[in-house]
Amino acid sequence: MPTETRAPAKLALTAVCLGFVMITLDATIVNLALPAIGADFGEPSTAALQWVVDAYTVTLAAFLLTWGAAGDRWGSRRVFEAGVAVFVVASIGCALAGDTAWLIAARAVQGAGAAALLPSSLALIVHQFPDARERARALGVWGGMSGVGLAAGPMLGGLAVGLADWRLVFAVNVPVGVVAIVLTRRAVAEPPRHSATRLDPFGQVTGTASLAGIVAGFIESGHAGWFAPATLALLAGGLVAGAVFVAVEKRVAEPVLPLGILKIRNFAVATGIGGLFNFCLYGTLFCLALYLQRAWSLGALAAGLALVPLTLVVGLNAFFSGRLTGRFGPRVPMVAGALAGLAGSAGFALLPADRALVLFAVVSVVFGGCSLAMPAMTSLAMNSLPGKAGLAAGVLNASRQTGGAIGVALVGALLPATGMWLVAGGYALVAGLAFAGRQSS
Question: Per-residue confidence at 147, pLDDT binned at 50, 70, 90?
Answer without folding.
Answer: low
